[in-house]
Amino acid sequence: MSWTRVSAVLPAVFAACAKVTAAEESIDAGPSQPAVTAIEPQPGAVAGNSQFVVHFSEAMDEGQLLAASGRSETVVLAAEADVERAAAAIEHSELSAHERSLLVPAEPDIAADRKSITLVPDHVLAAGNYFLLISPRLKDADGRKLAGNGMRFAYQVAPPPRKARLVSPLPGGDAPSNLLMVRAFADAGRVALWGPGGSEVASADAHGDVPLALNSALMPGVKYTLALDGVPDDAQSFTAASCARTAAPAMLAGQAQLSVRDTSVLVSLTLDWPATVKVMIADSGEPCSGECVTASAYVSCRAAACGPQLFGCKVELDVDGLAPASDHVLRVVAEDDLGHLMRGPLQSFTTVAPLPRLVISEVMAAPPSPEPEAEYAELLNLGPGLAVLDAMALMADDGVARPLVASLPPVPVTLAPGARALAVGSDFNPARYLLPPGLPILRASTQRLLGRGLADDAPPAFRLMLQGAELSRFPGGGPACPAGASLQRDESVPPQSDATWTCGSIGGTPGKGP
To answer: For 397-430, how does the pLDDT look when each residue is reduced to its tens digit (9 = 90+)?
Structure first.
């Protein structure tokens, strides 16, 4: 079947006309056939974020415009490399998954009167040649076939113009007079920093990040502009301040925030000044006195050259390759482009054990008074390694896994080796006990543990689970204990072994051990 190649036959007509008529397409529409009356934009050069609209003379069959996939398979976009196969594919009524992959993914929007359809590409179109294709099998609402034997319209998306941009100082800001380096970015070309009268004060070939070492001191009050291949960009400029900066970068709260996993740690910190941040980690002692794991990044932000500084330079560094269930020590070092160095404090942390040695160490099923909000199950991390509690659950004999926490917290709940936590219902009242400061309390979504709570006379058996694996078990029942006493596990027995349970103290020992 032949196609009407409108854009290839009449490119001059499309360049001059705002609408595509049946006559211009060399299509004999006839008095009874629906026709394409206009397309937007006109064939030719378009921006990568363009949307494509096809207008019809009659209301079209919506079932043909919109396929079961939720996309149009009769009015489509295709890249030049796929256009012939895509054109052949849309001639028949149902496309295979492979044939749909030949099309540029686009969201269709059909007008209420069904006289137009708009294609909105899911992503900005990359540079290249594209075709808007209209299937020859399209019909209107009355079943009349669209005039012609299919149509295609050619478009070209040009690559974006090359540009250079300031990384530090940021555009529109200022810089201290003793700045030694300006940082820029460009994919290619010659990047230069121009000073008074267009004089070049630094330059380098670009292949991504471009450090521009200044060959002279900045002149206070003077505007400095970035240029690419000899063309300045006034939007990429900064002003030299009258002051010099003498302070090293400072870190908010004096240390980094650590989110520890089994083989990695996410280091989050905030500085008051742009700098190259380096994270150094060792197993013990001073980081990098021997072998160490490092990660580094340059963090840029808008900071005033003179006067008080705000903490606005935020960065996160993910350091991988650590041994699980091991102790480590970390130091953050930040060096700015004025030669100042900040060395943060030593910070110790322990990586998470892949399958933590966690036990149910104490169960309070019969509080001193019968209030159910006093029930708890105490968890003990036997180590080595940190335990992350967020994904753990309690499971009774009904096979339902009930998460320890009702919803995931913004920061993972971790338990250090030797530390304890309480699993409780949502109605748990911590004022009932004298709890150690900082004791983690994990509230479930149900008011009582295991949904119905723990029976006083014969507490049910339940297990501590992590992603389908059993970490520890409470066998249920237990000895006859005085009123208000808890049940206490022999903590010397390994987690996977059966342990003896005895009567604990009246009132329990939550968070304190036997």
So the answer is: 899 999 999 988 887 889 999 999 999 999 998 9
- Number of other residues whose CB lies within 10 A of the CB of residue 500: 10
For residue 301, which of 190, 389, 171 has the smallest C-alpha distance?
Answer: 171
Which of 447, 419, 353, 360 has the alpha carbon at shortest distance from 395?
A: 360
CA-closest candidate to residue 351, choices 265, 271, 276? 265
Neighbours of 115 (CB within 10 A): 17
Q: Count other C-beta atoms under 10 Å from residue 373's C-beta.
A: 18
Residue 37: CB partners within 8 Å, gap ≥ 6? 19, 20, 21, 55, 56, 57
From the list 177, 160, 157, the residue with the least C-alpha distance to 169 is 177
Output the CA angle 278-180-340, nearest 5 degrees. Answer: 45
Burial group, residue 94, by CB count within 10 angstroms (0-12, 13-18, 19+): exposed
- 249-276 burial: b if 16+ Cβ within 10 Å, else e: bebbeeebebbbbbebbbbebbbbbbbe
Is the pTM value of this prediction over 0.90? no
| Continuous segment of H or E residues that includes residue 276 | strand 275-282
Residue 434, phi then psi, degrees to nearest 5: -90, 95
What does the block give as tokens for 345? Answer: 């404090």
Distance separating alpha carbons of residues 116 and 55, to the nearest angstrom: 4
Beta strands 190-194 and 106-110, pairing class: unpaired
Distance CA 485, CA 344 (A): 48
Alpha helices in 71-215 (DSSP H): 83-89, 97-100
The three-state secondary structure class of 54 is: strand
**pLDDT digits 0-9 by tens, 114-131:** 999 999 999 999 999 999
- Cα–Cα nearest to 331, from 342, 341, 345: 345
β-pair partners for 238: 224
Residue partners of 439: CB distance under 8 A and separation at least 6: 420, 421, 422, 510, 511
Distances (CA, A) of 259 to 266, 274, 358, 411, 499: 5, 23, 20, 8, 33
**Residue (of 263, 193, 206) closest to 233 by Cα position:** 193
pLDDT at residue 321 is higher than 70: yes
Buried b (16+ CB within 10 A) or exposed e, 388-414: bbeebbbbbeeeeebbbbeeeeeebbb
